[in-house]
Amino acid sequence: MWAYLLRRVLAGIIVLFVLSFGVFILVALSGNPLAALQATPGISRATIAAAGAQLHLNEPLVDRYWGWLVGLLHGSFGYSYTGQPVGPQIAQRLLVTVKLVVPAVILSVLLGVIVGVISAVRQYKPVDHVSTGLAYLFFSTPVFVLALLLKDFLAVDVNRAVGHTILFTVGESTPGITGAWNVFVDEVQHAVLPVVTLTLVTYATWSRFQRAAMLDVLNADYIRLARAKGLSPRRVLFVHALRNALIPVVTVVAIDFAALIGGALVTEIVFSWDGMGQYLYNALTGAESPDVYAVSGWLMVAGTAVVVFNILADLVYGLLDPRIRYA
Amino acid sequence: MPEPVSDVTPPASALTLVTDAAQGLTFESRGQIRLAVERFAHHRLAVVGLIVFLLLLLLSTIGPVFWQYNYSTITAQFATGPSAQHPFGTDLIGHDLFAQVMEAEATSVKTAVLVALIATTIGTVVGAIAGYYGKLADVLLMRFTDLILAVPLLVVLLVLANKLSKQAGSWLWIALILGLLLWTNLARQVRGAFLSLREREFVEAEHAIGASDWRIIFRHMIPNAIGPIVVSATLTVALALLIEAVLSFLGLGIQPPEVSLGSLINSGQDAATSLPWLFFFPAGFLVITILSINFIGDGLRDALDPTQRGRS
Predict the structure, then answer these.
(1) Which of A25, A145, A218, A292 to mutate to test the interface with B (most CBs of B within 10 A)?
(2) What DSSP string runs through B246-268?
(3) Cα-Cα-Cα-Cα dihedral of B250, A268, A101, A144, to 10°?
(4) For residue B310, which residues of chain A lie inside 8 Å, CB to CB?
(5) Phi, psi (5° rounding) for residue A60?
(6) B312 touches chain A (CB under 8 A)
(7) Res. A144: pLDDT tops 60
(8) Hey, of B155, B163, B293, B298, which one would you mutate to test binding to chain A, going by the most A CBs within 10 A of its CB?
(9) d(Cα A322, Cα B307) in Å, to the nearest integer?
(10) How far is CA B199 from CA A125, B192, B193, B205, in A?
């Protein structure tokens, strides 16, 4: 198993380097970060040249990539075009994204598993039809539609009904609040809507996976045997069936979670959360875009998350299902 | 995870199919299509989805011909709610929203359909060649597919959409980018199907009578893998609608003077609280369109690919 793990990690590192090179070149070639500067009236050639030199724009592309890579191996993500170090910037953004994504994923897993299991056990009964309908509705609804619905309509109504603002729709916290408890309450009030948005679009897919996995298991011979032995339905369902039906879902959850670390772009934008998605978006479309160093830094963090969680998913898979051998 | 197929009762006409098959190929293929149509018709939501989608298609193509306002006409009434004159109301500068929604629906759907055509063609060809020839072709094409899959879709989309959406005829560019990125899943599926079809007797028989590779692939193997291909094409339409809407919502997709449902929601969102119709009509059309296509896809899966029944 250790040899397997080592091989997977090495393969992951190679993929990351190939990707970083490709993305670096693609982003660097995709636009001119000096465009705004050059369009400034009355600007001198020397100023433009100096700005270009500062951003290493006059060096060959491969040299620039090499410079970035050497910096990375020395533990530095380099400086973004706005002059700030990328590493600390990303660390800050990652924290914001984690505050949004982790609660949403935990809620989605709970909701997805519960709804999926109930749907499977009551297959083709009203409760199954309702949950199937809702799941279809949620994965047919673009995230921004759901987010705007909650932000512009639900939140406004709720706040009006209560008489003061209990659901905040902009940002991740109110500045200037003191006291640990007050800060916590404030952050929760800010997090409710984006977390609910993300949960609804995420659980819908997972509940379908859980339902399908559960149906598969419920019709297996060993479940029939467990029932024939006279075990209680509860024991058959939770100990014998659910345990095995969770295996395929683990993979889906791990991979989706990893992708969300790269940022819930749309949710972050609608609710003005300064997370990873927003960071990438600004780096690619903001004033000094395309910001190669910011994008490459983002890619390293988001890509590492994908690689690590894929490996974790496979390991957990083996843990839950002893039949799987790592070769 | 395919559901157990034990609860699928074979339609009564399965028996007639067997006897038809004995009489000749044309009969059999007609029987297959009729069977598929019957299975599709059994899926009530899929039928509803198909009807709704056709109505939307009709409205967005024929509607503008009869409607009194063009989507780009600026009327004297601005920011008015739904009325007899403007059934969906008007926006902040006086566009008739009904005309705009019809135009946007047409743009969104034609973009998504083009994406599905491009993605399905590439996916089928890549998967077919990799699965049929195997060996080096398979290794090269599948590694290439893995590479496309590994590339962070978000980065490529933002980079390319930001650059290309500024061009004239932006819907074509958006369709092209999405089409070139969304074929990987289908390629893997087709490859898988071809790997097993390759070993079947009818393919061996074709080889024996000296049929060309081209003929075997296109006349015999692709028709046998048509189920997953059609289902995937349908679901790609839904996916493309979602992605195009997000891009347009971010201002990176369809650009003015063209309008899509996503860009309409984007331009209406600032006034959404005071002029809610600017949000609800385009958002409603968007969700209903995607929902109906997802239902059609589900019905097609039941109809064409019975082993995958219930997976979604």
Answers:
(1) A145
(2) HHHHTTSSS-TTS--HHHHHHHH
(3) -50
(4) 212, 215
(5) -60, 145
(6) yes
(7) yes
(8) B155
(9) 27
(10) 42, 12, 11, 11
Q: In angstroms, what separates the C-alpha of A160 from chain B's closest C-alpha? A: 13
Measured over the CA atoms of residue A327, residue B1, residue B4 and residue B5, the dihedral's sign is negative
Quick: pLDDT tens for A204-248. 999 999 999 999 899 889 999 999 999 998 899 988 899 889 888
* Average pLDDT value for residue range B256-275: 86
Asked if residue B151 lies in contact with residue A19, where contact means CB atoms within 8 angstroms, the answer is yes
pLDDT at B17 > cutoff 60: no
Neighbours of B126 (CB within 10 A): 23
For residue range B182-231, list pLDDT tens digits in order: 999 899 989 988 988 888 899 899 989 999 998 999 888 998 888 889 98
Model pLDDT, residue B7: 40
Q: Give me the mean pLDDT over the B71-88 stretch.
A: 82
CA angle A55, A56, A62 (to 5 degrees): 135
Given a contact cutoff of 8 angstroms between Cβ atoms, the answer to whether A260 and A105 are in contact is yes
For A229-268, b/e burial (b = at least 16 CB within 10 A) is eeeeeeebbeebbbebbbbbbbbbbbebbbbbbbbbbbbb
- Among B150, B276, B283, beta carbon nearest to A15: B150
Q: Which of A140, A216, A265 has the CB atom closest to B290's CB atom? A: A140
What is the ipTM score, two decimals? Answer: 0.86
- Mapped onto helix, strand or coil, the DSSP state of residue A227 is helix
Q: Are B264 and B99 in contact (CB under 8 A)?
A: no
For residue B142, the model assigns a pLDDT of 86
pLDDT band at residue B26 using 50, 70 and 90 as cut-offs = low
Cis link prior to B257 (omega < 30° from 0)? yes
Mark yes or no for CB contact A216/B2 under 8 Å. Answer: yes
